[in-house]
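Service request form, structural biology core

Requester: graduate student, group of Dr. S.
Request type: structure prediction, single chain
Budget code: on file
Notes: please return the result as structure tokens.

Sequence provided:
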Amino acid sequence: MTKLFFCFPYCGVGGVPLLFLRIAEELSARREAETYLVDYVDGFMAKHRTEGLTHFVEYRDDVEVHIPSDAVAVFQSMTPWSIFPALKLSPQTRVLFWNCHPFNLVPTLPGLRRPMQNSVTFGRIILATVLRSYRDKMLRLVCLMLACRALVFMDRGNVATTERYLGLAIPDPVFLPIPAKTPGRFMTAPVRNFQVMGLRVAWVGRVVDFKYHILKKALTELNRLQPELDLRIEVTIVGSGVYAKKLRNDTLPMNCIDVHFIDHIATHLLDDFLLDQTDILMAMGTSALEGAKLGTPTLLLDVAYGEVPSGYLFQWLHERKGFSLGDVLGPEHIAPGNNSLTDRLREALSDYMGLSARATEHCKKFHSLPTVAQELLTFACGTTCTYGDLASAQLVERGVMYSIFNRLRRGLARE
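Core staff response, request fulfilled:
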């Protein structure tokens, strides 16, 4: 069987390690591939894997970890010079990049990362000047990997961001949507009388820079609309992160909605929370699928690195096209004077089970775990790009600027 090494050493909670773990275990359970999880011994995949179903390869920062020549290494797309430093791939090892974040293939400058991500124009200026050599490397990388069938995208938004920032066209992108694990049960007719008992809204996901602004916007709008709807609204924020405290402070003046914070809900308890304690989910990325797969109507929020202007269009996940699980906010997401959030909430109040059915059907059609796992295996078997190809194209050298910033970061960390 094909040997697949899923490489994502990470100790926190995140969408990519959960994604890789689910795909690996699905393929192993069906005996369609020999799967290996490359992770820290206390990493997310290591701690949550089913013993004996996959192979575990311990990653350590101070010991070389070798990937054999007859394997395919699966990565979240990244700048190739930032591939995990202790990872040693054979020149014959084939690679597959899965673009799971809009900026996976866009080099950014430390200290200017957020302004670059918040403005395409500013980002392209930095890429054309200070980071020109790195931008040129990424252009060569994308062209090489597309030619070798080694690059797949999770959705249309990832393609659009890559094209805009790198200044290239990807005429025939290959898509591999993010999958949702098949649930054990689904939403049934709600016993709650919303007008009497209120509406329970939840957010599930980390509270970090690119999620904070859009989440704050959603809460602000819910607070503003509550008197008009004349409906008690209770919001539960499930997730931690560097912006969590700031968000807590933002919610203090919001006296029309009740906001509660929970740092974490264990993966095996999340379905019950979404089915039994949530009426509407707000999320992006993998978290959006966690609710929609169950039939919980899910508002898909978009990536924003700065304040969200008035007129943001709130949409259900099942209304979005191109496998989207959240785009980088752009003009197409803004329509001044719209009543989209009011309309979405009234839809939930009047046709809850219709929305529930459409959410479930959307996930079954586009995000089925068995289907996506099989497609990934097909792409892994089809890639002809090797690590040697990347090295020969001089794409893995880190360069002087990268080394300088790395030293600065390590120095600041020691202080």
